Amino acid sequence: MMEKLELSPEYEKIKEIPDYGFSGREDLEEITLPASVKKIGRYAFYNCRNLRKIIFFSGIQDVGSGAFTGCHKVRHLDVTIMQENESCLKDFLQELTEEMLVEYRGEEYARLMLPEYFEEGVENTPARILMTQYHGSGLKYRNCFSKNEIQFDEYDARFSDAKATESSEFLQKLVVGRLRYPYRLHRNGREQYERYLKENLVVIGEKMIQSKDTDALAWLIEYYGRKQENLEALLEYCGRMGAAECTSILMEWKRRRFAKKISLGMPDFEL
Hints:
The chain has helices at 89-93, 138-142, 152-157, 159-165, 168-180, 187-199, 201-210, 214-224, 228-241, 244-258; strands spanning 3-6, 16-17, 28-32, 39-40, 53-57, 62-63, 76-80, 100-105, 109-114, 118-124, 129-135, 145-146, 149-150, 261-262, 269-270.
């Protein structure tokens, strides 16, 4: 049976997770670390093979080597920033190389996607040199830090690298996250994301319908559903999927934007 490990609020005095403290715990799926934790010891969560989500605060000052080695199923980090320019997020990401959703709770909320990457040793036989090659754009994204604080402009500037190497499904999640929660998103970044979203709006909408994410679908149509043909395509897809609630949302926006008006010598009526 999988468990959630929550070291809060009754554990407010905990300052340190000891070396090997939870290593090998295959029953752990999610951990919550209280704001009091300042240090994570070496190999503290080593080989927690089923760990998927880590919730923590930015005040952790020391993350020991190997703390998350072998935690290959982690896909979700939720970090609350306690002070400006204070973040241990980079330390967490050093050993977590898989695709990652980061929920960043600073002055405002941001939802960031980081691609995976892996490294490969390649031998240059004539020179007798072993070189390391990196595959995927994930390492470039993980280097968007200065003094341990993520640089959002640099993160957004990596999108061209992501488009060249990452899947369309990943790109869609990244774009929606940045546009829906545009913390420190400036003009150039917004324009590139909006261009991609508009080119792929129907596919993105279909994903939201599949997952029954009605809040995201309502956001998408409110801000970007300006073309009637896109609404019609999504309505047709809803019909095939039997997605009644999503159909209701789309029909309401269709009525607002595209209903024709006729005049009968009285106040206008909408058809």
